[in-house]
């Protein structure tokens, strides 16, 4: 294992401290919990937005704490859910009297701990709601969509929910529009090389040099099949076939596009993927609202990429195009 680390058991804390050292005017960490908090609070009270999950996915989750996004992120160990009491402390810290909405992924540990924290906060009189991302179509059939895990679609969830809160929507309105965005989001990924968890020093899965895993999860979970390496165009076309059929997306739809690198795939290759995605969308007469290409939700040094499409309506479009400002995600207000 070759990694620029010190003690494998301190990777998460040292990385978090380095992040805060880089952006001290933007974020801070609670003194008694590994929870990143937004410093530049809005002048008018709004619904608080909190997310969280395991480390190893940077820029998720800490990179999305900022204006028009999340107000807090609870940070777990590598690929492990943050404890409930940390989430609870984060909820209490960001509550401005209008409630707090929890936006997180569909993983059993996260669900259990966020719901425990929700119960504790409600005892304190804080109104708490939740929206859970479940965009990975490879992880469960469409008829069992509630069992699907979350992958890069969480980024769109944070963008929509954070913008809705920044607009001043109440907690029920934020939950409705964010849930609608989640229900209209589909992702599919492919992996070509595993990640190595620092505490174990071993690859999370095995692939031969000429193999790739279709439908891989962000923790190295197996996909639906192992296949021989293909060209960028052929791989993208197959992934898009699964995605377009699942919602289904159709002629006349408008979508946001997220081409996400898993940690070790060069931008050059991601743009080649985006070129083919654009070609396919044009073929089906599906319009693009906006395209994001880069590393938005990684898995340490895993090689591969995922494609996320979100079908948008007028309201979701406005929220996706709204201003966002965090150290890892900056966007001008594109509605102007």
- What is the structural class? alpha/beta
Distance between the termini: 48 Å
Strand content: 15-25%
The helix content is 25-40%
> Helix count, per DSSP?
8
Q: How much is the radius of gyration in Å? A: 19 Å
Sketch the major β-sheet: 6 strands, mixed
Number of strands: 14
Please write the string of helix (H) and strand (E) elements: HEEEEHEHEHHEEEHEHEEHEE
Specify the overall morphology: globular
Mean pLDDT: 96
Q: Enumerate the strands of the largest sheet in spatial order, edge to edge or round the barrel.
A: 1-2-4-3-5-6
Could you provide a short overview of the structure?
This protein has 336 residues and is α/β, with parallel strands linked by helices. It has helices at residues 11-22, 84-94, 108-123, 153-167, 171-183, 232-246, 267-283, 314-321, and strands at residues 27-29, 35-38, 48-55, 72-78, 100-105, 128-133, 185-193, 211-214, 225-228, 254-261, 287-294, 303-311, 324-326, 329-331.
Write a structural description.
The chain is an alpha/beta fold and 336 residues long. It is 32% helix and 24% strand. It contains eight helices and 14 strands. A six-stranded mixed beta sheet has the order 1-2-4-3-5-6, sandwiched between helices. Strands 9-8-7-12-10-11 form a six-stranded mixed beta sheet, sandwiched between helices. β10, α7 and β11 form a beta-alpha-beta unit.
